[in-house]
Design brief:
This protein has 18 helices and 12 strands. The protein is of the alpha/beta class and about 450 residues long. Bound molecules: NADPH dihydro-nicotinamide-adenine-dinucleotide phosphate.
């Protein structure tokens, strides 16, 4: 990249940092994309003239609201709700809701920004958004979760709709929360409008495969990367961080493809089982009992639980970070390389720090970013919207086949774009450039929006 182009991009980035003070995760996500766009801007100077980067980095709309609720003891609590509607250039806003105490505007904006390009990569007609709250669901009763979701939706319902904005789940928002949110939306609007939210239960308009989609999609994509190198999951030792929705179904698909997952985690610690993690036990503990991962050791006495352990210290062939942002740093990357890891692909959003990505790439480790590899979740949400729109329900096998086709398309797009820009095998650059160009090319014909 020429030094003039470098300076231009740096100036845009500084302006974005100054306009969004303190939002460090948002700055990180923007920088990761901008750092790869120089070559595109040289080829397409109209993107600079049209101020496309500045426009894309400014959300179309940001909504912040009060969420008051009452706990089981009658005490009142006040949380903060967010919905950042980033881009509707390719379709209605689409992106999940995160309930976690760490949530603030900077987290929601980083997730919403990533979502724009991820959704564009799927090739489906969906724009980008994200939302959530600093509410902590951990340790709350079902009734408390329901009251919180109902209060959250009382405000959110003004801004969403089948053709406007379609939320879904993310950290802390699974099937139970989606049910309460949809139920309240239905009461408030007096409409059975299933297309307003995705990740619904099968009893009221959900889609088969949606629950599995992000984890399965991640593993399909990783399998394609391995195959390009003459490798496969067969006989590989795999680490999967987290033990939530994405992690569970990534583990399931790895096992189906012949790999062995030996460890997973939660924010308290790591469980290691040399025989391979027993998924029925994980599903029981996490999906049914909503308990901590350490319970696993009481079912499998040979397994080891390490409080505050680091999962990346365990030797593996493939590492799949599926918990949260910045969970895999330079030190972890170096340990993985030392232990012979050949591939890191992201189930979570932005789980690998920028320096760690450089370390992985410069040591020849296959790496692909979440905006490509975890796009199977939102893609299957778009398939759920299609089924809702035509009041239909597809079979598991048909929906899974559509998911596989979409993941194959995303893989091919990233791979070919990397080749086109003379960085073969660099999925990060391939994903960023392909996603950005699709959004840019949709924006220009619509005039100054
Ligand atoms: P869940 O809430 O189902 O699970 C999250 C898991 O990650 C839990 O095991 C949780 O442990 C762990 N975790 C969360 N925060 C931390 C932390 N700070 N340190 C260590 N562990 C942590 O969420 P999902 O599985 O849905 O989401 C996981 C990731 O995947 C997120 O980055 C999300 O944005 C991304 N993603 C999710 C999609 C989906 O369809 N659900 C789609 C695309 C991306 P604990 O219980 O202790 O908090």
């Amino acid at each position: 990249m020429s030094s003039i182009m470098h300076e231009k991009i740096e100036a845009i980035y500084r302006q974005i940092v100054n306009r969004n003070p303190g939002e460090v995760e948002f700055h990180q996500a923007v920088k990761e994309v901008l750092d790869t766009l120089g070559v595109v801007l040289i080829k397409h100077p109209e993107y600079l003239d049209q101020k496309l980067i500045e426009r894309i980095c400014e959300p179309e709309r940001q909504i912040i609201f009060r969420v008051p609720w009452v706990d089981d003891k009658g005490e009142i609590h006040i949380n903060r709700g967010f919905r950042v509607q980033f881009s509707s250039v390719m379709g209605p806003y689409k992106g999940g809701l995160r309930f976690h105490p760490s949530v603030y505007l900077g987290i929601i904006k980083f997730l919403g920004f990533e979502q724009i390009f991820k959704n564009a990569l799927t090739g489906m007609p969906i724009g980008g958004a994200k939302g959530g709250s600093d509410f902590d669901p951990k340790g709350k009763s079902d009734a408390e979760i329901m009251r919180f979701c109902q209060s959250f939706m009382i405000e959110l319902h003004h801004y969403i709709g089948e053709h406007t904005d379609v939320p879904a789940g993310d950290i802390g928002v699974g099937g139970r929360e989606i049910g309460y949110l949809f139920g309240q939306y239905k009461r408030l609007t007096n409409k059975f409008e299933p297309g307003v939210i995705t990740g619904k239960g099968m009893a009221y308009g959900g889609s088969l495969v949606r629950k599995e989609a992000t984890g399965y999609g991640l593993v399909y994509f990783t399998d394609m990367m391995l195959k390009m190198k003459g490798e496969s999951f067969e006989g590989k030792t795999v680490l999967v961080s987290g033990s939530g929705n994405v992690a569970i179904y990534a583990m399931e698909k790895v096992a189906q493809l012949g790999g062995k997952v030996v460890a997973c985690s939660d924010s308290d610690g790591v469980i290691y089982d040399a025989d391979g993690i027993n998924l029925d036990t994980i599903k029981l503990i996490k999906e049914q009992q909503h308990k901590r991962i350490k319970e696993y050791a009481s079912y499998h006495p040979k397994a080891m639980y390490k409080e505050k352990g680091v999962i990346w210290d365990i030797p593996c062939d493939v590492a799949l970070p599926c918990a949260t942002q910045n969970e895999l740093n330079t030190k972890h990357a170096e340990t993985l390389i030392k232990n012979g890891c050949i591939c890191v692909t992201e189930g979570a959003n932005m789980p690998t720090t920028p320096d760690a990505i450089s370390v992985l790439q410069s040591n020849g480790v296959l790496y692909a970013p979440g905006k490509a590899t975890n796009a199977g979740g939102v893609a299957t949400s778009a398939l759920e919207m299609q089924q809702n729109a035509c009041r239909d329900t597809w079979t598991f096998d048909y929906t899974d086949a559509r998911l596989q086709t979409i993941m194959r398309g995303i893989h091919q797009t990233c791979y070919e774009t990397a080749e086109e820009y003379s960085v073969p095998g660099n999925y990060l650059i391939g994903a960023n450039i392909a996603g950005f160009c699709r959004v840019a090319n949709a924006m220009i014909p619509l005039g100054l929006i």
